Amino acid sequence: MKINFKRFFRSKVFYSLLIIFAVGVFLRAYNFGPWLHFELDQARDATLVDESVQDAGNLPLLGPRAAGTFARLGPWFYYTEYFFALIFGNPPVGGAVAILFFACLSLPVFYLFFRRYFSKEKTLALTALYAVSLYFITYARFGWNPNLMPFFILVLMYGLLRAFDKDEENEGWWLIVSATAFALLSQFHFLALIIFGLTGLGFLIYCRPRINWKFWASSILIVLFFYCPVIVNDWKTGGANY
Fold it and tell me: pLDDT tens digits for 89-137?
């Protein structure tokens, strides 16, 4: 379902959503630093980001290890935390602001995604529940790489729906949005790489969207760009994932 944004920004729904957003941000951001949760893995990640802020040469080509294995994810979790640490300083809190930032951004995207399926009232109610959910609030305050996933999952799925919508005029650009979200999401957790890689492939096979080849090429190049550090590491180490 398409949204008329001009009418939307003048509606009661918009102001209701603003209130929900404000409450959700407050619950996630209030006393963020003192209540921020870390465990051993997150302390390791925060130390690496701190060292990288002091010397960017410490930034790795690979990301955290997958639990219980020696396999490593892509590095964009570290790069994201590094970027936010440069802006907000004070590692580990500054780097962890990345998780808070995307947790807050997920609130309006949540509304956009579910509005395609439900009425305004039901979507507002669902968004309000998401905003005050103890589960999501707790994990927005936990410096763990999978906690960046909710925002990118929503963007990926929303982008795919728009890209494969027969009435969509900008389907190519939404394909690029989806590709960007997938390129980052797949580096936050191996399950995301597998599940959403297969989901995206399934969408392609089932829907067979007719999108200009330039957008397909651009999407592939975007994914390759975000995986450049992994490719460089494989080239330097002969394919060793460490």
Answer: 877 888 899 999 999 999 999 999 999 999 999 999 999 999 999 999 9
Domain boundaries defined on the chain: 5-235
Of 112, 56, 53, 115, nearest to 87 (Cα)?
Answer: 53
Q: What is the pTM of this model?
A: 0.91
* Digit-coded pLDDT (tens) for 176-194: 999 999 999 999 988 888 8
- Tokens 């590094």 correspond to what residue? 82
The token pair at 110 is: 């949540």
